[in-house]
Write a structure and sequence with these properties.
about 425 residues; alpha/beta; Leucine-rich repeat, LRR (right-handed beta-alpha superhelix); 14-stranded mixed beta sheet; 25 strands; about 25% strand; disordered N terminus; binds 2-acetamido-2-deoxy-beta-D-glucopyranose; LRR_dom_sf; signal; LRR_N_plant-typ
Length: about 425
């Protein structure tokens, strides 16, 4: 019996929830002896932190079948034997302290019919054993997040040919990302290694990769972007690493979420990055420079809930019209010059553009007709401070503390742009 054809991350999450709340079906059959022994060993190497209570149902003296009485254990009949097919370690409640100990119990590798191995947040330490990849060939979901796992990601994980989701985020893993992880797992859709101490370069992905969701944020990765990324990607975060080099074409035209913020990417932003289907784009705090490109011929305007953050770079030139329909737009702390397009002003006062941060640029005008009469709609944040103009008062009220107290730039900083005319 198969549990699901998890086609999406959301389906996966709902499956986890369902499994967590449901009680395994009672069967007359006895759990296979090897699997029962494995559960014994797991309980020997993991413990509840304080009174987490997860193992309180694991009573090996009870006549009840572990498949129906042990929390987190799900079984199915495989080849006429009752086998453990899913193991959810910890009760997963947000206020639960989770488990301590290690996941290196030898017995766990006898659970060869396991399709899901989930360890809920806790303080489990030790390595991810390489046996995981060698023995548990049926694994589709491995999620070992928010614990204290150390060591490297075993290369043997790429022997899990059915693996659909791998989430090892929020641990203390070191070393490089095994190249085979990106090239040898044909079924892999979700790969989350965020918040570890992984170093080295991002591996090259195979042409056959079906990856939809890739999250390597908050590691110590370096080097440039791989030449090709999976064309199937919809979500990509590489934020807060030490990546550098130019942004060439968009990593995948299917992206809806892209976060490359807090790296050292440099050079101009290619026009392919500006696309209404890419409705969340974070490029802030890099070393990007040059003017924003004219929109591509296929450009359609951004929709509600769109967000574009280009702040804290070295972008220059005029603020382009084509970002007028972005709902949350951060262009602050760059070298933009010239007038703010009238469409922006209209959309801000109509409440369609809900955040517009332009502070710390060299902008010379924000064209409002009657500055004294203008009132911002509720919830709209506009910040215009520290530019080459005296901003209207509506442009100062919603500035973050980081914008500083100065309303305008010193005149001498503005004269280099020959735009001193709009001061006053
Ligand atoms: C485990 O089960 C046995 C037999 O049913 C029972 O006597 C014992 O009290 C149980 N232990 C716990 C801790 O519930
Ligand atoms: C940032 O860009 C400038 C030129 O625009 C370049 O000289 C500098 O080396 C870049 N820094 C990094 C860290 O890439």
């Amino acid at each position: 019996m198969e549990f699901c054809n998890c086609n999406s991350f959301l389906q996966l999450l709902s499956l986890i929830l369902t499994l967590h709340l449901s009680i395994s079906p009672t069967t007359q059959q006895q759990l296979a002896a090897g699997d029962l022994n494995a559960l014994h060993q797991i309980m020997d190497t993991l413990t509840d932190v304080k009174n987490g209570g997860f193992f309180s149902t694991w009573n090996f003296s009870s006549p009840e079948n572990p498949c129906s009485s042990f929390a987190g254990v799900t079984c199915s009949v495989v080849n006429d034997k009752l086998r453990v097919t899913a193991l959810l370690l910890g009760n997963g409640f947000s206020d639960s302290p989770g488990l301590a100990g290690t996941i290196s119990a030898i017995g766990i590798y006898d659970l060869t019919e396991l399709t899901q191995l989930i360890l809920y947040p806790g303080i489990v330490t030790g390595f991810i054993p390489s046996q995981l990849g060698r023995r548990l060939k049926n694994l589709r979901v491995v999620s070992l997040t928010n614990n204290r796992l150390t060591g490297t990601i075993p290369e043997t994980i790429s022997e899990l040919q059915n693996l659909h989701t791998l989430d090892l985020s929020h641990n203390k893993l070191t070393g490089v990302i095994p190249p085979t992880l990106a090239s040898a797992l044909p079924e892999l859709k979700v790969l989350v290694l965020a918040y570890n101490n992984l170093a080295g370069e991002i591996p090259e992905f195979s042409d056959e990769s079906q990856l939809i969701h890739l999250d390597f944020r908050n590691n110590m990765l370096s080097g440039t972007l791989p030449e090709t990324m999976p064309a199937t990607l919809r979500y990509l975060s590489l934020s807060s690493n030490g990546l550098w080099g130019p942004l060439n074409s968009l990593p995948s035209s299917n992206l809806v979420y892209l976060d490359l913020s807090m790296n050292k990417f440099s050079g101009p932003i290619p026009d392919s990055f500006f696309s209404s289907s890419l409705s969340s784009m974070y490029l802030q705090r890099n070393n990007l420079s040059g003017e924003l490109p004219p929109p591509s011929p296929f450009f359609e305007s951004y929709g509600p809930a769109s967000i574009v953050d280009l702040s804290h770079n070295f972008l220059s030139g005029d603020i382009p019209n084509f970002l007028e329909s972005v709902e949350t737009l951060f262009l602050n702390n760059n070298h933009f010059t010239g007038k703010v397009p009238e469409e922006y002003v209209r959309n801000v006062f109509a409440g369609a553009m809900r955040t517009l941060y332009l502070q710390h640029n060299y902008i010379s005008s924000f064209p409002v007709e009657n500055p004294r009469d203008m009132v911002l709609p509720d919830g709209v944040a506009l910040c215009l401070s520290y530019n080459c103009m005296v901003p209207p008062t509506v442009g100062l009220a919603a500035c973050p503390a980081s914008a500083g107290g100065a309303f305008s730039r010193p005149f001498r900083q503005c004269s280099v742009f020959n735009i001193g005319n709009s001061i006053g």
